[in-house]
Structure formats: structure tokens, C-alpha cells
Amino acid sequence: MPEDAVQVKVFRYNPDTDKEPHYETYKVPYTQGMVVLDVLNYISEHYDGSLAYRWACRAGQCGSCAMIINGKPRAACRTLVEKGKPLTITPLVQFPVVKDLVVDYERGTRRLVKIKPYVQRLKSPSRPEIISKEDIVDVKEIRGCIECWACVSACPVVGEAWQEFAGPLIHRQLARLKLDKRDTEERVKTAFIEGLYDCTTCKTCVEVCPKKIDIPGKAIEKMRAIAVKEGLGPLEGQKPFIEAIERTGRSVERQSTPLLEQVPDVIDVDDPIDEVAFFTGCLVDYRLQSTGFNALEVLKRNRIKVHIPKAQSSCASPAFRSGVVDLAHQQVKKNVDALEKLGITKVISLCAGCAMTMKNDFPAVTKKIYNREPNYKVYDFTEYLVREVGIDKLNIKDLGEIKMKVTYHDPCHLNRGQGIHDEPRQLIKLIPGITFIEMEEADRCCGSGGGVRTGRRPLSMALARRKAEFIIKSGADAVITECPFCLIQIRDILNQLGYQHIQVYNVPDLMAMAYNKTK
Amino acid sequence: MTYETIDTDVLVIGAGGAGARAAIEAANHNVMVTLLSKELLGKAHTCMAEGGVNATFANVDPPDNWEVHFKDTIEGGAWINNQKLVEILTREACDRIMDLEEYGAIFDRTPEGKIMQRPFGKQTYRRTCYAADRTGHEMMVTLTEEIRRRDVDVMEEVFVTNLLAKDNQVQGAVGISFKTGSLLVFKAKATILASGGGGRVYKITSNAAQDTGDGYAVAYHAGCRLLDMEMVQFHPTGMVFPESHRGCLVTEGVRGEGGLLKNIKGERFMQRYDAKRMELAGRDVVARANATEILEGRGTEHGGVYLDVTHLPPHIIEERLPTMLEQFLDVGVDIRKEPMEVAPTAHHLMGGVEINENAETTLKGMYAAGEIAGGVHGGNRLGGNALADTQVFGKRAGENAAMFAKKSSMPIIDRSQVEKEANKISTILERKEGIRPHEIKNRLQTLMWDKVGIFRTGQELQEAVQAIEEMKAKDLPRLFVMDKHTRYNKELIETFEIENMLTIAEMIAKAALMREESRGAHFRKDFPKTDNKNWFANIYIQKKMGQMTLTKLPVVVTTLKPEGA
Q: How many CB contacts within 8 angstroms connect chain A with chain B?
């Protein structure tokens, strides 16, 4: 066997004959461009013809070969094998194993068929039927599903409450039908009953989808917007936040002096290397003022001039995520006007939700209002420091030592929402004395997003508990994140579980702590 | 071995485009329908069809009509199509596509809101309807939705090992359930075979894993007559690297949208093969052109030719060829910026089970539709005609099978045929050593590619026939599987597949040897010319007294005849 052979650990189980599942390890020679399906075919031909797995098209078009590859559901035919990197292959979860990597989808299809997953017409169409080009745009975006069930296997909400939440695949099909003008069924009502408001918009389904269908964005949120119009949404628990935005421009009620009332319009530094605008978001302004001050301290230490426009307001993420479209659009205008007035080209936020909303949702709205995208660029705080300032240009010498074991929780709206995964870790690791522990499933949703914390608290806490298990298991003294929502959620659950000694910080908190060790 | 017997009115074998459509139609006629699928529902090869489906809506080219489509199909088919079937295909395609739209299909639109149509190879007008480059998927998803609406008993992952037939009448089938490994017996008043193609007999193929041509073999053994088995379409453009993607389809839609074929010197070589139609010549012509360029040393490093769309605006590629864009990005090629490398790949069997206008086979109570059926496409199939075929003949098969079932009583099956299958399974499971099925499979696939491929000679075909006979005699009795349990035993299923594949391979090779001329997809280097005087004919194959018998018979002609015939 050549040295660059791939080490493959495969789940094996025949319920007819085996007491319990076990793993077997094989060595498979690596060849350029090989995919996981090639590995399985090699094992079947050279080691064990009894290995059961499904495949058909080998081109990502049929969805037969979904399985969990190194922890994530993937289509085996489209997953490239990395030279020298071991593979672990297990069957999809949520479905009973037929044998080895083959599962029985009956549970899923039974659920799917219940929603009447087909176009229901009241009368036959004219022949030919005229369907305008514009009418199929929205449907086409979510039509490419190959029913591989990877999303259902990966979805954290399905993992906690499949009985309540029908799952991404089925909600996509409901949206496909609702957005199809030929269909006459009450799809939104069905979607509402099937847990339309249970989705945390964590985008795990998008990450694992072989067709990259944006189910939260193109199905769930569009359906929520219609649900709001039809009076079904938002949920009771979400209403105060929406109303608060309408009333005050902030999604939460004032408790102590807001950050914006404590800081000047501009924080100047000597010999600035750059100039940015700071977008606080509701929680940093009203709840986590210290995190705001810490971020400003880190920017100051790195000689960055900061503008803090006082006319800024809620990014309206709660409104976007729960389908309250009109309010969301008003907020976009308010914020874009305030930020553009400064003439600054870079806007940073340390709230994953705000930054994602400003990056992903604002441009579409300004295109409608102003027929153009905003004239500034939005950065997450860590993204700005690592990619824009540059990690080698950061003020590292003033970071004092912190003796602490820390782990990091990926906010969904930062990791999958903005593609920022390494940057926070790079910054944490800069701090002397820090021991970094990667927890298992660091990118698992904590359950706070998508209006689930406010609208579906028990479900949200169930998701948080699962997250907490991995945090606790990591043995870290503190968990670091980069999102005020995640921070509050994780702090809550750790307190509930009696683990209040595990500290929860945002990245700027930890960095400021290190800077404050030096003067 | 115990087994369960399931009674039904209409048994449909195969759940791709044709089978699903047949099941829907049969259900419309108020009979019990059982739909067997070798794979999971919706994952049949139809979902991989990319470029489109032909129907003369004349939405973009007003002069188009069924008669032009008819002529294009006959000429494209090198004249040996059954003209009665072609007339049905071309007359009914529009209605069948409108059926799909009624079920919920979403085809791309013209500005007026009609179905958009793109040009395809060797067709006079733009008549190929499409949903980006995932038309087959759109159709399969739609049919799956429609099947789920209806009262059709869908049985997934059932592999049919044999048809039950007696006195020239089919009475049902025997199958194995993948999931449990148990034997199932289906008693049916009427049976529809819609089991798809057999591209997997070739080493390089666009076909999915399950396309091992089982239907051709079971139909043959049940006594059905088949025709045109020598006519194997090699699609001109399959992927060439990496190895795992070799043969994967690169849709004709790429050329339809303006893709150019070039050799290593950058020359648009189609100039030398078909200066008029260039890249949109018939698939047979383009496949041979690509193969010739590669064989004569003007190919790329990976053994292909270039297929280039870099001159097209990126948004056109993104909107109309998203699957291709993704498929090549997967292997590190951005087709917006660099050319694809492509080479011919075994794609479609034009030949198959003989049917009449009612999709009836030569056996009573048995119908066939889709790729398994022969006669529609003659010696070369036009791109976009296969999807149309599935719908037109799928519907006819469903309708006629249902009507036949309504006037028939439940047949009495010959249990000894079931015992035979059961014994076969036990014998294989009990065998302690021998040859594993994939070993024979690999050998056969290489043999077929090397000796029964794009360019053929009498001598090589002779060698192939001999090698196949040897494999049948020496290897089949030694088939051995590692797994001795029946639950999801892929290798056990493969033993049946390989036996079927040898039968099809034998049919293809023998018919190719018999046809001493070149026509359509069949090219004999030792007989490079088309011989209309002697070979304007079809070769029919039937099992007689246990022997494979080949007979030359006249083409079914209604209107058009080639010169010199």
C-alpha cells in the first residue's frame, strides 16, 4: 500500500446478524481527484463485498449516496478525498439503518406525503398554459432538490424535535408549492403547523445541500413573510421585539444607559492606520455595553479611528428572520442613510446577526429603494482585523498574558452566514497564555437565532442544552464567541445547568482583557 | 426459500420517466397499479437527463411542426426507425409535455410565457424544451410528485430477476427486495417493462450504476422479440478526468447554447466532418469526429477534445448550464474561463424490445416503453427525443396495459419458475469460492469498449462474441459472493446483473457482426459505407429453442425511404 493511502473508518451494521454496530478500518490507495464513492467502491471490490451503500448517478444528480462523511452529511460522489486526511463514514441519522451505510427513508417520505407534496389545481389549465417568466423565478431557486435527505439528517432542530418541525426538505417543498401560482392548497397554514417558526436559520441545511439550496432564505423566510401578511406570524413571543423596533428603533427595552449615549461621535487616535464606522446593534447598545467598550478599546489599540453614528438603529434582523418585511425595509433605509452620511467606506459590527443582515439582506432592499447597493462595505469585527488590517499588522506586543483554557463557539450567522470561521480563532490564539481547545461540533447551532429564542423558548433551550454539553465536555474555562445573541443564550443555559463558572465572552472582550494587562 | 405473492392489475417494472408515466396513466384507468423501482423513487436515470425534451410547439421557430420533426428523426435515425412509432412520437410529444406542466413541471419560458426551446443536434428548428440543464430532473421530480398524488403502490429497491411467462403470455415477475433480501412474486394481469437502458455494459458510460440493461435480458428470456441491438449511441461529450468522473455526461445543451469543439491545435475540427451543421451535427457524426481526433493524436493530455464556452457571457452559462458549471467546478475547472475536456461515452441503446403502436410487445399482456423499447430511434437517436419517448410511449403503455388488465382475469402462475429463482439464489449464497461479480463485470465492460465500441471490425466483433460465450460458460457457474446474508446484499444483485449484461452484450455483438455496413451509430471499419440495397433493414433477435436467433426484416415504412433502398 503506497504511503499516501487513505485511512477509512466505516460504520458497519447488519441488524439481522450483528449485536450492535461497529467500525472497520480500511486502507485505500489515493488517486488524484478521487471522491468518497471511489473509496467505497474500492473497499467493496478489494476488501469486503458485503459493504452496503447506495449510489447511482455519480454526478450529484440523484441524491442516492448521501452519508455522513467526517461528521457532515454529504453526497459521496461529490466529496473529494483529501490526500493524507483520514475519513470516517457513517450513515445519515434520523433514519433506521437497513445495513451499513444504507438507511430507510420511510419516516421521511411518510412525513413528506402528508403535506400533499404536489401541485393541487382546482381545474385543468388551458393548453398551452401561459406562465410568465417572472412567476417561476422564486420556484426555480428551490426546485433543484434531489431528495437526498442530507438536510434533514443535519438539521439541529429536526434533531431535537422532528415531530414539531417537519424539516428543511419538507418546508422547501411547501414553499415550492406556495410560490407556484398554479397551486391552490393552503400551504402557509400547513407550513405554520409543521413548524415554520422553528427554524433557527442556522443554514446547516445549506451547508450540507449538494445543490446549495438556500432553504432558510429562499423558502422559510419567504413563507414567514407570507405568514405575516396572512396574520399567522410573527409568534406571540416575537411580537414585543418587533413592536419595540417600530416604537424605539431597538428590539429590546432600555434597562441601563445605552452605549450610544456614553460614547462620542468620533473616537480619534494618533496617526490612524484606518477609519471605520461602528455599528453596535441592539444588544451591544442596550445590554452588552461592556463588549462595545471592549471593541472600541481593541480598535484604539490598533490605531483605528472610529465613527459612531448616533442615528443608527436596529438592523431589523428579527423582522427579516420572522417575515415582517415592511418594518425590515424601513430600518434598512434608516441605517443606510445614517451610515452613508458619514462618507466612510467600511462599517464594522461585532454582532453576527447584524453583519450578516447588512451583508446579505440590505443590498436587495437598497436596490429597490435606491436602485443600487450601499456605498460602504460591512465587516465582522474579527474579519476586519484579520483580513482588512492584516494579522501581521495588528498590535500584538501590547497583548498581555491571560492564563485560560478557552474554546470557541461558531455563531451560525458568522460561520455559515458570512463564511467566517478561522478569523476569530486566529485572534484568540494571538493572546499569550491562552490554551485553545476545539470543542466537538463547534459550529452547531446554539438555538438562539431565527426568532426561536423569543418565539419558541423550550425548543431554543433544548438546542442550547445540546450545545452546552459540548462546551462542558471540552473542559474549557471560558467559551468565546462573536455574537451577542449566542453569548446571552450560552450564558443562560450554562447558568441553568449550574455551570456558571464557565465564562462566556465575545472575541473583543477577550482581546481587551489582554490589552488591559498592559498600559 | 419462502416468498410473498403480490397480486396486482398492472405491474410496472421501472420507475423512471416511462415507468412513472405509465403508472400514472394506468392509475387513471381505475386499476390497481404496482410500480417497482430498482432504486429509490425519483432516482432513476431520467433524473440525469440534462439538455431537454423535443416537441414541436413552434414557440420560437413558427414553421416547425410534427412532420418536420418526423423527418428529422428518421434522417437522424439513419432511416431504420419504425415510422409508425416515429409518427406517434412526433405527433403526441406536445400533449405529453403539457401533461407534465399540468402535473406541475416548470420549464423555462419565452418572454410571452410559453415554453422556451433551444436548438439541438441535427434538428431543423429549435424544438428542445428545457429546464436549464436539469430537464430530466425537472421531469422526474414532477412525475414523482404526481405518483405521490395517486393511488399507486410504489415498491422501492426491488430488483426483478425474471418475468413469469407461459404460452407467450406474461403473468408477472419475480423480484428480490434489496432491503430484506426476500423473494417477491408479482402476479399481474398486465406487465409493463420500463426498465431503462444498459450503458453499463461499457467501461465508459454516462449511465447510472443501475443501468445494467436487466430488462433486455429478462424480456429476451421470456420470449420477447428485440431489434436494433447493434445500435448503441455514444454521446460525443462525456467527461474524461478525473478517473471517477470519466464518462459523466456533458449535455448537448452546451453545444446548443453555442459551445465549440476544438482539438489541441485550437482547430474547429467539425469543419472537416460536417461543415454545414458543425457542432450540432448528429451525435453519431460528432462522436466519431471526437474519437477520430483523439485517435489521430490531436487530443488533449487527458485523452479528450476541447469543448469551449468561454466566449459566452458568464451569466448565460450560470443561468442555462448551472449543472455543467457545478459539475466541472467540482473537479477544479471553471467553464466560464477554461474549456472542458470531453470524449465519447456510451449513452443510449436505440435497440430494444419490439413494440407496436400500442406499446405492446410480442408477448401477450406485456408492454414496453422508454429506452427498453426499440424501433423509435432507429440507428441513432436525436438528442431530446428520449425524454419525449418516455412520455409518449409511457402513456400508451399505461393506457393499453390497463385496458388489457380490465378484460383479463388474474393469471395462474407457474410456481416452478419461482422455485428456479429461489434455487439460483441459494446456490450462489452457498458457493464457497469462485469469481466475484465485479470481476466479470469489469472484464466485460473493457471487452465491449475495446471491441464493440464506436469503431468496429468483423474480426474484433467475432472475438467479442467468443469471449462473451466463454464468460457465460466458464465464469457464470463460478459466481461467488462474500456476503452470505440476503439483507441489502449488493453483490448478490450483481450476480443477476452480470448475467443480464452478458446476454445484452451478446445481442449487441452478434447483431453488430451481422450488419455488414455502416449506419447511424454502428460503424464498421471493414464496411465503412451505408448499404441501402442490402441493409435498409432491422435485425431482430429472439430466443428460439434456447438459441439466440437473428433475423433480418424490412423496416416499417409509412412515408420516407432512403435513396437506393
A: 167
